[in-house]
Design brief:
44% helix, 6 helices, single chain, BUG
Length: 156
């Protein structure tokens, strides 16, 4: 965000927090001015008017009545898409047979109507990847984050 806005990232103070609950507490307590978190963590505070949502870091707006007027970062001139990826990971000693069973099970769950209903209730975007596709995606994201951190002088 800083890079897209032309702000030197080293001029900002970064605060490491553990998840949406801590971010909401810090924002509502006035300890930080801005934070990035899941919409599902923030909905009660947004609906109460205690927190304002500035942008959605997705390809499209959230298709919910309360959120439909919140623009994406791209609509505001910032070429940023930053999906939150949740995953289940297996250790290196898991057999191929067990790996394939888990992959098939998650493929089935992710394609189900019940899962779609739960996802929608939690204001989450559809994002269903498993197996090699998810592995490739995560590795690319990590490489991109490392490159950005290096550009910003946050790592060597």
């Amino acid at each position: 965000i800083a890079k897209a806005a032309g702000i030197n990232p080293r001029a900002l103070r970064y605060v490491a927090l553990e998840g949406g609950g801590e971010i909401a507490t810090a924002l509502l307590g006035g300890h930080i001015q801005v934070g990035s978190t899941d919409i599902s963590d923030s909905m009660p505070h947004i609906l109460s008017g205690d927190m304002r949502l500035l942008a959605v870091f997705a390809e499209k707006r959230i298709d919910e009545p309360e959120m439909k007027d919140i623009p994406t970062a791209k609509e505001q001139g910032y070429d940023i898409v930053w999906p939150v990826v949740r995953g289940f990971y297996l250790g290196p000693k898991v057999s191929d047979e067990d790996y394939n069973w888990w992959k098939a099970s998650f493929d089935k769950i992710l394609a189900s109507e019940d899962f779609a209903k739960l996802r929608d209730q939690r204001e989450l975007f559809p994002f269903a990847m498993t197996g090699a596709e998810l592995d490739t995606y995560v590795k690319k994201q990590v490489a991109d984050y490392k490159l950005m951190a290096k550009e910003f002088g946050l790592i060597q």
